[in-house]
Amino acid sequence: MKLIVDCGATKADWALQGGLRFRTEGINLAHCPAEKLGPVMDEAAEKIGPGVTEVHFYAAGLVGKSPVDLGRWFPDATVEYASDMVAAARAVCGHGSGIAAIIGTGANTCLWDGEKISMQIRSGGYVIGDEGSASVLGKLFLADYIKGLVPKELASEYGASYEEVVKLVYGSGAPAKSLGGIAPFLLENYSVPYVKGLVDGNFRALFERALCRYGDYPVGVVGGFGYAARDILREIGKDYGIAFSVFMKSPLEGLLEYHGI
Description:
Blueprint: E1 2-7, E2 11-16, E3 21-25, H1 34-48, E4 54-59, E5 78-83, H2 84-93, E6 98-103, E7 107-112, E8 117-119, H3 125-128, H4 134-145, H5 152-158, H6 162-170, H7 175-180, H8 183-188, H9 193-209, E9 219-222, H10 224-228, H11 230-240, E10 244-248, H12 252-258
Parallel strand pairs: 1-4, 4-5, 6-9, 9-10
Antiparallel strand pairs: 1-2, 2-3, 6-7, 7-8
Helix pairs in contact: 2-12, 9-11
């Protein structure tokens, strides 16, 4: 049986050939402590049981060799380890060529030639990159908020104290996730000119610093934030001559098709 795992920093979706689907806590392999990996894998393996012969493990933060060996939980299976960027590209482009974009808590892009990533502009993460992401949008908003640059009515609606903001960002074990959690509030207030400027500026940085540099290809988007903002992205894309082929909340369905499940 084939097992597909789409493991993001926030959540992991598991799909077993035959119909079993479930979700666990996510893992970012770039900075997840080793002691956190075991319990997540134990939980998943218990639900799946024996009989897995092929695993395709797509993970956020996978650079080079995987720090987790799935052979410990699936000893009879061949295992493919691939990045979440490969997952997104296979999901939205399949065996064709195009630009794939992850627009969620983080953001990443690549040019896919139908078999592999042929060009990739590095994301850099939410501290030095991730333009267009929910976490960067949250960071931009909070930077204005603590300095009194947010319109009073909107600031009053958000209503957090400076101490609460500091705790949200620096007291959290997952600051990017905490920052990204502000994005739904901002999209709900997109009609406010200040918010529109913030959201549009964040997305325009993604277009100008990444998407426009790949050439004339359609863009497929994976990620809950990108899906929620799909109308905004389509409208901004017109200014850059970029068309979008598909928006997916999660790459899982596209991956199941790609792997023939």
